[in-house]
Amino acid sequence: MDDYSLLTISLSLLLSWLLYFLTVKILRWRVLPPGPWGLPVVGYLPWLDPEHPYLSFTNLARKFGPIYSIQMGRLSTIVITDPKLIKQAFNMDALTGRADLYLTHGIMKGYGLICSEGPRWREQRKFAATCLKNQGMAKSHPKREKMEALIVSGVNDTMMRITNDESSATSGVEFSHFLIHSIGNVMNVIIFGREYSYDDPTWKLLTHLAEEGVKLIGVAGPLNFLPFLRVIPKFRGSMDFIVNGLERTHEIYREITAEHTGEEDDVVGSFLREQRSRDDAKVAHSFSDDQLNFLAADLFGAGLDTTLATLRWFFTMMAVYPDKQEKVYTELSTVLGQSTKPCLEDSHRLPYLEAAVSESQRLRTVVPTGIPHGVNTDCQLGAYRLAKGTMVVPLLWAVHMDPQIWPQPDEYRPERFLDEDGNYRKLDALMPFQIGKRVCLGEELARMIIFLYASTILQKFKIVLPDDAIPEGKDPLEGVCGITFLPKYGRLIFKSRVN
């Protein structure tokens, strides 16, 4: 390459940088919140910690304030860390969309619940909410007892596996495997009307694909913002696994669907009835076969992943903070004794347990960056104008670790959620299920599962960290971040409290 060509390329790059700089500067002067500068094409991506993006975002919030702008590859992004502003933003119709990420639009193609938007999202969310409620996922519903019995069956399965595993009381066990099986089967019954045995090869494949997929897909992953990177060998393997895993999962779902008549009460049966009804009426609808597969995957993944993460963190904290665990146990023993098994009606009688769960959800937010929304039409948020296509990130980690809201935020203190009389008090700044029009659809189901597992297991077992579980000098509450934030160290000892 001659000197003239090099000079031409250098000048082109310089002009591109100046144009980018001036464009962003003008936009910010007119409409955008303050924020850091980035580079052309990649924006601020090179400076984000790929393993702990939520910490990078939180550090920027300390510098630029509770709302700031940042360029994420090709996406203009707004990050919000003020809980009141998050609530205001996510209650706006203009912010019910999804950002144009490669995950939502390239891989998921806007299907399902998590990645859909517009008419499809509204129609499918209404259907899914009605379907889950009709199975008992509601505080007051005739089938609530049936749903409770299903969850209790899962709890009993987990208790049996803890008891039968000889290492559980000595060297400890990877407790997450038991939870994945039992909670996963709760979701299987709700969605597909079936359960799998622990060693079923199809079930093992499904859980493997789900676990690895969650690890590989992250909101801050560069592929989401720079899709052309998928051809680079470093990223190609991950992309192939995600895409092939998705197709294999859908193949299994199609086999299950083929066995349904459409008369079943599970999600698949209800979907097929709705699909046929719309087809017979010859009206346009979103109940396609592809939508069913993505919807089932979303309900299964959302129902399992975040609930699993919450319980894993909670039981880990019980082991790390034995004094708090003893307070939970004392409350359980006082209210229920040893022989009375907890039920959902007992939740309001166990305020310290509820506070301990809430504090674990605060201290280790299972979705640290929240689920980003997309602006579907130009709108005003406070003093700023948000353009259509902007991504909006509710930075829940920063909300939950804000010292102005939570004094000494790094400390595990369930008492934050108790009033002067020892009653549980709900605090608006805690948002484990997000907030607004796209609040987690399965929040009530998750609360049911978390309470029954937490209360039943702590009533019967004392949880201890194995001496060799944590490498010397490491934080026992260190996590690994994919879509969800999970404990890095999962082995726990369960000592029976029953003589």
UniProtKB/TrEMBL annotation:
GO terms assigned for molecular function: heme binding; iron ion binding; oxidoreductase activity, acting on paired donors, with incorporation or reduction of molecular oxygen, reduced flavin or flavoprotein as one donor, and incorporation of one atom of oxygen; steroid hydroxylase activity
For the ligand (heme), the binding residues are 440
* Source domain of life: Eukaryota
Q: Name one Pfam family in it.
A: p450
Membrane-spanning residues where? Answer: 6-24
Record's bilayer topology term: Peripheral membrane protein
Q: Which InterPro entries does its entry note?
A: Cyt_P450 (IPR001128), Cyt_P450_E_grp-I (IPR002401), Cyt_P450_sf (IPR036396), Cytochrome_P450_fam2 (IPR050182)
Q: Which GO CC annotations does the UniProt entry carry? A: endoplasmic reticulum membrane
Q: What is its main location?
A: endoplasmic reticulum
Which keywords describe this protein according to UniProt?
Answer: Endoplasmic reticulum, Heme, Iron, Membrane, Metal-binding, Microsome, Monooxygenase, Oxidoreductase, Transmembrane, Transmembrane helix
Q: Where in the cell is it found?
A: Endoplasmic reticulum membrane; Microsome membrane
The protein's required cofactor(s) are namely:
heme
Could you tell me the Gene Ontology terms of the biological process aspect for this record?
organic acid metabolic process; xenobiotic metabolic process
Stated role: May be involved in the metabolism of insect hormones and in the breakdown of synthetic insecticides.
Give the family from UniProt. Belongs to the cytochrome P450 family.
| Entry protein name | Cytochrome P450 CYP306A2
Organism of provenance = Nilaparvata lugens
The major lineage groups are: Eukaryota, Metazoa, Ecdysozoa, Arthropoda, Hexapoda
